[in-house]
Each structure stands twice: as C-alpha cells, then as structure tokens.
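[agent] plan:
  1. take the single chain provided in the ticket
  2. run structure prediction with default settings
  3. attach structure tokens to the ticket
  4. add a short note for the reviewer (M.T.)
[agent] executing step 1
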Amino acid sequence: MAEPSDLTKYVDVSKSCCLNEDTQHPFANIFADDESYLMSDADEQLLLCLQFQQNVKVHTLRVAATSADERPSSFKIFVNKSSMSFGDAESSVCTQQVQVPEGGGEVDIPLKYVKFQNVVSLTIFIEGNHGGEDTTRLDRLIILGSLVHTTNMNELKKVG
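[agent] step 2 finished; step 3 output follows
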C-alpha cells in the first residue's frame, strides 16, 4: 500500500456540518492552518458529519488539541451515515470506536483500514473530553488515506 496522504482537501465543507459547535469557533477551523479551532457550545459533545468530494480509503485520523483538559477522550466513527442526530450516534453501532490519548499536541489514531475502504462520508461523534470540562476543543483534524479511483462518467466520450 502506498503511503497515506492528506485527504482533508477532499472534504466538501459546503456539504459537511457539525452539531453543537460554538459559532465563534466553527468546525471549518479544524481544516485551517492557523490558530483557529473548533469548540463545542452547549456541552462537551460534538457531532461532525464530513462529506468527501469523491470516494476515499481512510487509514488514520491525525488529531491535534492544545488544551489537554478539553481534548476529546474518544470518537465513535460511522462510515457513510451522513445524516445522524446525537441520539442516533449514541444508540447506533459504530464502524469503530477509538480512544484519544491524554495530553496536548498531535496524535495519530490508526483505523481498521478494511472497514474504511469506500468512504463517501465520515460521521465522528465526540462524547466527551479528558478533563470533564463543559466544552470540548479540537484544533486540527487531518484525515489520512488514499483516493478510490473510479470512472468519472463526465469524462467519457462517445466512440463511433
């Protein structure tokens, strides 16, 4: 397998969303290369629904959070379930649940690659944070993997 590359540029931000985001710190900030960040609003939970512009294979989530107490403690990740509520995320069986190590900084979280082979959307449910704080903060989310090579029907030409 080739070295995983950054798939973040293939996230269609206009078709993606985040439930319970603070309007001063929206989810688009996790894709910016600056000091901005995503923060939850009413409580510590966040529900990210990320749509890709084309099918991808996801290998690893690279998570960065500078605030150790507000750093997410775990993710429930769902593949190709684009319209979920908090109730759905809490009660549904996820594709994979991962624990995020304590501390600040950046960490790579490997995924069960065979379960993330033909991904159109990723839904990430953040249930809480390490410090039991009222808000959860995520500075960066980088999705590593590769593109699924498919035929673009718009590029086909009639022959004959």
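[agent] step 4 note for reviewer: The first strand starts at residue 5 and ends at 6.
[agent] ticket updated
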